[in-house]
Design goal:
- Belongs to the VPS41 family.
- One of its GO terms (biological process) is cellular response to starvation.
- Its main location: cytoplasm.
- Plays a role in vesicle-mediated protein trafficking to lysosomal compartments including the endocytic membrane transport pathways.
- By secondary structure, the chain is of the alpha+beta class.
- Helix content is 37%, strand content 22%.
- The chain has 27 helices and 31 strands.
- The strands form eight sheets. It has a four-stranded antiparallel sheet, with helices on one face.
- The longest helix has 41 residues.
- 33% of the residues are buried.
Length: 854
């Protein structure tokens, strides 16, 4: 470890754990606390010269030659009087059972903390460093090294005696030693060496960069990051060295291992100590007073930085300037940095002060966020890590956040956070509601109040409703719609609304809200009355939901006034609850509404309202003539005489024509088309529809002296009447428009008919031939005759039991079978025999298809 000279002076400065940039928004990476308790008392009378850290305890050496064993909190557990001068170095093995101590007067002691047996020696020169083998407590690893003018290795042999070996000498005083597994690294005036105790070979020599610096004033700092990575800091230079195995083919006379420098960079200040932190480095710097661009008050404060090594440089992650006691009187050699490998703890040792730096945990992170008034981030961090935080409570952080939002005037944000922070704590909820009432912000918290399984006292909700009722009718209505009615005393709110309506009886918002309150209270008749008065869209939903059809029998006209389409659909969908007769009775004086109702009823079912069909004729004629003719066509219960009378009175020609044709007076209907409508196409369509030769004759007779009508007939009658009949009756010399085109069309229609007939003939012949071939194949097919068949005349087995005698059988195509002798004589057609059974049933004659003889 680095040599530390005794320093005088008293500590007058207090330690701070913050960066000098107090207003920085960047969160520190480390937190600091002074190692107090027994340490404070020790350093008041003495000064620290060195310290070694074990996971279980600390070993502190002083300028007055004493060694103190301390617990992690700094309480003294043991004290050793080693010398009267400065302790230069303390070394512990991994188990913490053995300690090695060296002092400025040349004393070296290695002993067990629990046995006191070991090595004691006085040298004639100061011994600056000592290092035990990491596994010293094991019997086969009783080794340690000391460094003064030379590097000596002490090993206990099988005779239980110490054997001494000089590992190195001649390059000045050895100032630092670090032992890791089989590798010993040490620094002298020239540079850093590494010795492999397993192969007994020195494997590297890393030269010092800045030889102008005195080694005793700016000692070298060594630190093993792992079993093969050594970190070297000297002056302002840092090198990261990795011990690697040499390829066996390259060894020859070379050591089996070599060192590669993977990173080297310069720092701004002088290095007092180094320690690994994951893939980063913790560096303790001495800030020289002559450094430029530094404020006077921090010029000599040590700095603790976290840096990220890069192949050709480094990146600063964080930097803290530390105010340790008596820092103005300290030199670079007075500071050392020790770390605990078990935990991320870093000890900054100075003569009059020891500071512990540790990684900030989640509690520290939350502290910093709260200090920076970043409450939302603090709350989020606490929620995510609620299992790991020890000093903070999620709810308390949330309450601090709410208080902050209220203080800054963000009442809506504060109310929104209440929902998340207060949770199911009824007492906290009520306290916050009363606080919002005090500051006049009940509206802000109203929409976030619990309204599910967790509910506050009804008085809380009523208080908020009354507040809204005084100042905001729309907000009041919104709350009533959103809040379940069981949250508050419904009757009390109804009474309050009624009182306000006395002052403003036409207020639609209050009336609508009162209707909703009546609905919650199951007083549907009052709610319905208000909805109808307001012509509110929810009236139909209310009727359906609560089956209020009995209450609307006398309010059908009001419903139709509001929305006749919806009203009619509702009435027709619920005929079982409000009868058709009842609706017609209510709408008797509202003819247009009655028409709308009966029209939709007719569309749904032509027969349900049949007794009102006669009344509907007049209603259609008055309000909906386009649907009159479809109604007359579809209705089978409409009195035709009444309909004809109404249509004739109103001169509805098309409807009159239809009725006349329906009543059988087709000639009069055709006459109306020709005379009143003067529409030859419609007359032709009417004649085609009726398909009556006399009508065609009347149509031709009426049209014979009207050239436009003749053109229409020539174009359309070719498929129903022989065009020759019309052409013969046309007077010579009559000018007929588009005659040529009409004649061409007649010829085309005639050719089309001829083609259709020829096509039909071909299809008929092909089908006949196909059926004939099928019949022939069927009749020429054999028929199976066996013992199961019987004669249809004598009912005996068709085949004789003795098949050796002669027999004769006739089988018809109808599958009936007879013995030859059982068949009657042939009919009138000679040589043709018919099945008696099929002939009797008139199923058609069947010829014998097979005569079997034997």
């Amino acid at each position: 470890m680095a040599e530390v000279q005794e320093q005088g002076g008293k500590s007058s400065e207090e330690f701070t754990d913050e960066s000098e940039e107090e207003e920085s928004e960047e969160e520190p990476k480390l937190k600091y606390e002074r190692l107090a308790n027994g340490v404070t008392e020790i350093l008041q009378k003495d000064a620290a010269s060195c310290m070694t850290v074990h996971d279980k305890f600390l070993a502190l050496g002083t300028h007055f030659g004493k060694v103190f064993l301390l617990d992690i909190q700094g309480n003294m557990t043991q004290k050793f009087e080693i010398s009267s001068v400065k302790i230069n170095q303390i070394s512990l093995d991994e188990s913490g059972e053995h300690v090695g101590i060296c002092s400025e007067d040349g004393k070296v002691q290695v002993f067990g903390l629990y046995t006191r047996e070991g090595f004691h020696e006085n040298f004639d020169c100061p011994i600056k460093v000592v290092a035990l083998h990491p596994q010293f407590s094991r019997s086969n690893y009783k080794q340690f090294v000391t460094g003064g003018n030379k590097l000596l290795l002490y090993e206990k042999n099988w005779l239980n005696r110490w054997k001494t070996t000089v590992l190195h000498e001649g390059e000045g005083t050895i100032t630092s030693i670090q032992w890791r597994t089989n590798l010993i690294a040490w620094a002298n005036n020239v540079g850093v060496k590494i010795y492999d105790i397993g192969t007994k070979q020195r494997i590297t020599n890393v030269l010092r960069d800045n030889v102008s610096l005195r080694p005793d004033m700016y000692p070298c700092s060594l630190c093993w990051k792992d079993d093969t990575t050594l970190i070297v800091g000297w002056g302002s230079s840092v090198k990261i060295c990795v011990v690697k195995e040499r390829n066996p083919t390259e060894m020859r006379d070379l050591p089996s291992r070599y060192v590669e420098i993977v990173s080297a960079f310069e720092t701004e200040f002088f290095i007092c100590g180094l320690a690994p932190l994951a893939d980063q480095l913790v560096s303790l710097y001495f800030v020289k007073e002559s450094s430029e661009n530094m404020d006077e008050d921090i010029r000599a404060r040590p700095r603790l930085d976290i840096i990220q090594p890069l192949p050709e440089g480094c990146e600063e992650i964080s930097s803290d300037a530390l105010t340790v006691r008596d820092f103005k009187n300290n030199e670079c050699r007075d500071y050392t940095l020790e770390h605990s490998e078990g935990e991320s703890l870093f000890y900054i040792i100075s003569p009059k002060d020891i500071v512990v730096a540790k990684e900030r945990d989640q509690d520290d992170h939350i502290d910093w966020l709260l200090e920076k008034r970043k409450y939302e981030e603090a709350l989020m961090a606490a929620e995510i890590s609620f299992k790991n935080i020890k000093r903070h409570d999620v709810k308390k952080i949330g309450m601090s956040y709410i208080n902050h939002l209220v203080e800054t005037g963000d009442y809506d944000g504060a109310a929104r956070k209440c929902q998340k922070v207060l949770g199911k704590n009824m007492e906290l909820w009520e306290n916050e509601v009363y606080r919002f009432k005090t500051i006049g912000q009940l509206k802000a918290i109203s929409q976030y109040l619990p309204r599910g399984d967790l509910r506050l006292r009804p008085a809380i909700y009523e208080m908020i409703l009354h507040e809204f009722l005084k100042t905001d009718y729309e907000g009041f209505a919104t709350l009533v719609r959103e809040w379940p009615g069981e949250l508050y005393n419904n009757m009390a709110i109804v009474q309050a609304v009624t009182d306000h309506l006395k002052r403003d009886p036409a207020n639609s918002t209050l009336l609508t809200t009162l209707a909703e309150l009546y609905t919650y209270d199951q007083r549907y008749d009052k709610a319905l009355e208000i909805y109808l008065k307001l012509r509110h869209k929810d009236v139909y939903q209310l009727i359906h939901k609560h089956n209020l059809f009995s209450s609307i029998e006398d309010k059908i006209v009001l419903l139709m006034d509001f929305d006749k389409e919806k009203a009619v659909d509702m009435l027709l969908d619920n005929e079982d609850k409000i009868s058709i007769d009842r609706v017609v009775e209510e709408l008797a004086n509202k003819h247009e509404y009655l028409h709308v109702y009966l029209h939709k009823l007719f569309k749904r079912d032509h027969h349900k309202g049949q007794k009102y069909h006669e009344r509907q004729i007049g209603l259609y004629a008055e309000y909906d003539r386009p649907n009159l003719l479809p109604f007359l066509r579809d209705s089978t219960h409409c009195p035709l005489e009444k309909a004809l009378e109404i249509c004739q009175q109103r001169c509805f020609v098309e409807e009159t024509v239809f009725l006349l044709s329906r009543m059988g007076n087709c000639r009069r209907a055709l006459q109306m088309i020709m005379e009143e409508l003067e529409d030859v196409d419609k007359a032709i369509d009417f004649a085609k529809e009726q398909d009556d030769a006399e009508l065609w004759e009347d149509l031709i007779s009426y049209s014979i002296d009207k050239p436009p009508f003749i053109t229409g007939l020539l174009n359309n009658i070719g498929t129903h009447v022989d065009p020759i009949l019309l052409i013969h009756r046309i007077k010579e010399g009559m000018e007929i428009p588009n005659l040529r085109d009409s004649l061409v069309k007649i010829l085309q229609d005639y050719n089309l008919q001829i083609l259709l007939r020829e096509g039909c003939k071909k299809i008929l012949v092909a089908d006949s031939l196909s059926l004939l071939q099928k019949m022939h194949r069927t009749q020429t097919r054999g028929v199976r005759v066996d013992d199961d068949n019987i004669c249809e005349s004598c009912h005996a087995t068709i085949l004789p039991s003795d098949i050796t005698r002669t027999f004769s059988v006739t089988v018809f195509h109808c599958r009936h079978m007879f013995h030859k002798e059982c068949l009657p004589s042939s009919g009138s057609i000679v040589g043709v025999q018919f099945c008696n059974i099929c002939s009797a049933k008139k199923r058609g004659p069947g010829s014998g298809i097979l005569d079997m003889k034997k």
